[in-house]
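Per your request, structure below.
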């Protein structure tokens, strides 16, 4: 059996790598297709680390030509792909989303059907089957966190030698839009001097020019001695999830992934919205979010404004089990079975359903 991973973005890798490792254990060969971009040298470092069999392409039209020539049993995607009709003449396709969260796009990603989509949890699986009754959805769980649940050594371990072992560690992981990031003050690490602070912005915040204001704030925060700011090289969220005692976030999949570990979460309700999402246009924001947004909100305590954060951090770290039952309940809905075997279930499906 031959498997290919279509890797348009670096941040797809944390979901792909556990499956790649499981395939390797079974003696099944994998190949990665990477798309050239300004971070190609960084991607090459990742390639070297895992010794990945790979090729580089410029665009999707070049990728489909390669797939037609390779005729692999399976090609993995983390998002949609415009040439599925051509691909399905030679290979089967599998979709493996790169994150979980409250955005409606989780469901619209399936509007162009692939051979199979691997889904996190029975609830999401049944909802997708109702929306797209002709398509195939398989509940496997959330393989991105398999390394943590299996107590494996986490790839991309962080250099935190400057952190105090006496202090608790906070992770701030905002999404790029709509984000709380611009509503945090320039000196906020001073307000949390009694904590180690990990800051893991979304990949887009540090890689796209339109988010220059994000970069300016991030650089200012990185100057504080109690802060570790993720660089583009820190492409995986998993090492940050493993290190932190508490998470602060907004409408980011990081919020839900951290909750799966049953550790306390603070959800920032204060967001910097573009004018086109405010007032009479607020329906655009609601449309962007999933219908279950309100229910998912119960797995965290909420900060209405930045000034509420410090008290909430102190409360949640003093009582980390405060919302444990709610987190566990919603975790099952968000991600299904969390036993570290999601990657195994994916590989078993591939083996039993290959061409």
């Amino acid at each position: 059996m031959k498997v290919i991973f279509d890797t348009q973005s670096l941040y797809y890798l944390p979901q792909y790598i556990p499956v790649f490792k499981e395939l390797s254990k079974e003696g099944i060969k994998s190949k990665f297709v990477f798309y050239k971009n300004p971070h190609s040298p960084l991607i090459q470092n990742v390639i070297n680390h895992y010794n990945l069999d790979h090729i580089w392409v410029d665009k999707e039209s070049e990728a489909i030509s390669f797939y037609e020539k390779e005729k692999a049993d399976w090609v993995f995607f983390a998002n949609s792909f415009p040439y599925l009709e051509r691909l399905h003449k030679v290979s089967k396709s599998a979709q493996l989303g790169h994150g979980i969260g409250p955005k409606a796009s989780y469901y619209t990603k399936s509007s162009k059907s692939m051979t199979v989509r691997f889904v996190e949890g029975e609830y999401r699986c049944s909802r997708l089957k109702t929306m797209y009754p002709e398509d195939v959805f398989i509940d496997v769980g959330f393989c991105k966190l398999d390394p943590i649940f299996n107590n494996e050594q986490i790839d991309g371990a962080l250099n935190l030698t400057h952190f105090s072992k006496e202090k608790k560690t906070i992770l701030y992981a905002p999404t790029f839009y709509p984000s709380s990031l611009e509503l945090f003050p320039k000196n906020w690490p001073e307000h949390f001097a009694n904590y180690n602070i990990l800051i893991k912005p979304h990949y887009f915040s540090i890689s796209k020019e339109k988010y220059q204001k994000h970069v300016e704030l991030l650089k200012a925060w990185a100057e504080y001695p109690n802060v570790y700011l993720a660089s583009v090289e820190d492409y995986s969220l998993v090492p940050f999830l493993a290190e932190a005692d508490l998470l602060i976030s907004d409408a980011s999949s990081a919020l839900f992934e951290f909750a799966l570990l049953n550790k306390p979460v603070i959800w920032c309700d204060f967001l910097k919205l573009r004018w086109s999402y405010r007032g009479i246009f607020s329906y655009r924001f609601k449309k962007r979010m999933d219908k279950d947004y309100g229910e998912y909100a119960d797995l965290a305590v909420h900060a209405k404004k930045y000034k509420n954060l410090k008290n909430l951090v102190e409360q949640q770290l003093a009582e980390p089990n405060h919302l444990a039952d709610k987190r566990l309940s919603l975790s099952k809905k968000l991600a299904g079975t969390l036993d570290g075997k999601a990657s195994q279930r994916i590989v078993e499906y591939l083996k039993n359903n290959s061409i």
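The first strand starts at residue 2 and ends at 7.

Regards,
D.
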